[in-house]
Amino acid sequence: MSVTTVRLQAEVEQHLEAIARRLHRSKGWVINQALSEYIEKQQLEQERWKQTLEAMESAAQGKVVDASEVHSWINSWGTENEQNAPRSGK
């Protein structure tokens, strides 16, 4: 484990201390938890952005599905004649 120094605004420090007391944990533990969750969120957002760019490129290449096919598929959910997801023609 490494040590990092961080300057905190007074209000942030007060909230951090209150959370640590409430959880009966150290401030370091709370900071580690918060940073771990933040890093995970950033990684998810980065992956979603990558998927968005891939989808935009796919659409630019004409790999799309007609809206009526999508609506028909969605309307079939939970019925006896549930359809498979439509696929692009390309």
Polypeptide structure, described:
The chain has one domain (about 10-75). It starts with 9 loop residues before the first helix and ends in a 15-residue tail after the last helix. It has about 90 residues and is an all-alpha fold. Helix 1 crosses helix 2. About 0% of the residues are buried. The chain contains 3 helices and no strands. It has helices at about 10-25, 25-60, 65-75. The radius of gyration is 24 Å and the shape is elongated.
Q: What is the element string, with H for helices and E for strands?
A: HHH
Shape: elongated
- Put simply, the count of helices is 3
Cα end-to-end separation? 51 Å
Unreliable stretches (pLDDT < 50, length at least 5) are none
Approximate strand percentage: under 5%
| Count of domain modules | 1
- According to DSSP, the number of beta strands is 0
Percentage of residues in helical conformation: 55-70%
Organism: Pseudidiomarina maritima
Pfam family, one: RHH_1
Domain Ribbon-helix-helix protein CopG: 3-42
Protein name: Putative transcriptional regulator
Write the layout of secondary structure elements.
Elements: H1 10-23, H2 27-60, H3 67-75
Please give a handful of descriptors for the protein shown.
90 residues; 63% helix; 0% strand
Summarize, please:
Helices cover 63% and strands 0% of the residues. It has helices at 10-23, 27-60, 67-75. It is elongated, with a radius of gyration of 24 Å.
